[in-house]
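Sequence in, structure out.
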Amino acid sequence: MDYKVVLAPRAIADLRDIVLYIAPDRPEAAQRLGLALIEKTRVLGRFPMSGRTVPEFGDPLVRELVLKPYRIVYRIDERSHLVGVARFWHGARSDLGTADLK
């Protein structure tokens, strides 16, 4: 059974911020990156365990996919067959918060 993939409000805001940051100088690149990040999450519906465990959390249900330099951080809810994408995070940032993953 496929999982439903849902973007959390914080993930949507992250995605918006990423695209808006790049868009003034390179609007086409910003659009391509935004679409590529969304497309990367689609695999999670069929393969929710495909990402690696996020080292900062050590929880096997908090995982990430990488589309360099971005980390797509998500939580798996096996009981409800739901993948919640919590953040789109630039890999150079070190302050990945835990509030969105609880």
